[in-house]
Amino acid sequence: MLDEPAMAGAGAALAAVLRPGDVVTLAGPLGAGKTTLVRGVLAALGHQGEVPSPTFAIVQPYDLTSPPVSHADLYRLEDPSELEELGLEDQLLDGALLVEWPERAGEAAWPQALRLSLQPRPDGRRALTWEVPKSWEGRWPPPHHPT
């Protein structure tokens, strides 16, 4: 169970193992802490500005982090076919992709993704669970981290 500082810590742990070409999906209901986790990733990668939820922009690039990160929020997608128009695959050539509301992209999207799921608890903390593909084995979960 994670409180807000622990969410930032989980984001920092994720940032430490993030590589170009990686996709991390973040599932969970509104208010589950998906953007909070992304803020932790970006802060750990050196981003010092604001990190708004990209609900209206859909994709927010952070080109000055290492690796560059694109933060996508697919909440407003009405059909998985709209995904191609966003050019998200191009982001993976030299950067990583963090995707909120991945279920809007369809079941087949990003089979190689680390799939994180956040669920709010009545005490205000969050439960963080994951599905780890082969490409993430040995990188996630991080050793000795209270995820």
From TrEMBL:
> Main localization of the protein?
cytoplasm
Q: Which residues cross the membrane?
A: none
Query: Whose protein is this, by species?
Result: Sphingomonas kaistensis
The lineage, from the top, is: Bacteria, Pseudomonadati, Pseudomonadota, Alphaproteobacteria, Sphingomonadales
UniProt keyword terms in alphabetical order: ATP-binding, Cytoplasm, Magnesium, Metal-binding, Nucleotide-binding, tRNA processing
Q: Which InterPro entries match?
A: P-loop_NTPase (IPR027417), T6A_TsaE (IPR003442)
Subcellular localization: Cytoplasm
So what family is this one in? Belongs to the TsaE family.
- Name this polypeptide is given: tRNA threonylcarbamoyladenosine biosynthesis protein TsaE
> Known NCBIfam families for this protein?
T6A_YjeE
Domain of life (superkingdom): Bacteria
Tell me one Pfam family matched here: TsaE
